[in-house]
Amino acid sequence: xxxxxxxxxxxxVVTDVPVPQPxxxxxxxxxxxxxxxxxxxxxxxxxxxxxxxxxxxxxxGHELSGRVDLDPSGQWAPGTPVTVHPARxxxxxxxxxxxxxxxxxxxxxxxxSTHPHTxxxxxxxxxxxxxxxxxxxxxxxxxxxxxxxxxxxxxHAVARAGSLVGARVLVSGAGPIGLLTAAAARAHxxxxxxxxxVLSEPLARAAALGVDAVVLVSEERLEADAYDVVFECSGxxxxxxxxxxxxxxxxxxxxVGMVPNEPRPLNIAPLIAKExxxxxxxRFKDEIDEAVRLLAERPEIxxxxxxxxxxxxxxxxxxxxxxxxxxxxxxxxxxSTP
Length: 338
Known about the structure:
Layout: E1 2-8, E2 11-16, E3 26-35, H1 38-46, E4 48-49, E5 52-53, E6 63-70, E7 81-84, E8 87-88, E9 107-108, E10 125-129, E11 133-135, H2 148-161, E12 168-172, H3 176-187, E13 192-197, H4 200-208, E14 213-216, E15 227-232, H5 237-246, E16 247-255, H6 269-273, E17 277-280, H7 288-297, E18 305-310, H8 314-322, E19 329-333
Parallel strand pairs: 12-13, 12-15, 13-14, 15-16, 16-17, 18-19
Antiparallel strand pairs: 1-2, 3-6, 3-10, 3-19, 4-5, 6-7, 7-11, 8-9
Helix pairs in contact: 2-3, 2-7
C-alpha cells in the first residue's frame, strides 16, 4: 500500500509500505480522506513540531475519515463509514482524573512525541484501537467527516469558554480552526460572531460561512472592551496582545492557537486591569462525538475545505496548505490511489 512519509525537514515521499494487520481489539480502516493540520506542516517544513523532532520515518495525519476494512471482532462490517478519535490516553494525574486528553503517557496519530513515533493516517490502511472508531450517521458524507477532528478541537475550545448564549464573540485568526470555532460558537448560542485576520482572503471565507462581521486588522483596529469571549486561534503574539485589549472587563480569552515553547513578548496589562480569564485549549476529550452530529446537521461547514488533492500530489497539498491566503482546509484524497 502507499503511504506519505516524512523523513525529516523538507523530505516527504509517497512510498510503498506493508499492509498492517490488526491485533485483538484493533480495527483496520481504509482511509478515504486526510486533512493537513498545522502540526503536519511543522513536521515537514521544520522537521519538528515544537519540541517533537522527526527522528525516524513518520506518516503524518490525524484528521481522517474512511471505511472499516477489517474488524476481527465482527462488530463493524467492511465498508462501514467512520472517522477516528486520534488519541490513545495515558495515565491520570492529580486534578486531571476526568480529563484524559491531558494525561501524560498517551499518544496521538501522526505524532513524533513518542518513540517509536505514532504513525498517522496518510496511508491507504490504518490500524486503530476499536475504541477510537466513530461510525458516521447516514446523512454525513465521508468527505465532510474529515473535519470531525479539527471541529472537535473547536468545540472543546467553546466548552472551555463556558456558556456562549447571547455572547458577543471574537475569533482571532480565520484559518481552518478559526472558521470551525466560529461555527462552533454559533452552534452554542453566540449572538454575534466577529472574525479577524491580517489577510483578506481568509476573511472572505469567513464571510461566506455567514459570520456577523469581519475585521482586517492590517487596516483597522479591533474595538476595545467589546467582546465577552475572544477565541485566539492564530498563536501570533501580537494577536494575543490584541485579544486582551478587545475582550471586555471580566471577559474570557481562550487560547486555541498553539505557540512556540519559548518566551514571546506580550502586553498583559489589560488582562490584569480588566480581570480577564485566560484559559488554554489542548486537543479535546470526547467532543468528536458532538462534531460528528454537528457536521451532519450543518452541511455548510464543509465549505471550510478549499482543496482536495490525490495522495500522489501530497507534496503539492502541503505547499498549498502552507499558504493561508490561498487555502482553507487542504485534504488529501486516498480513494483514487492505484
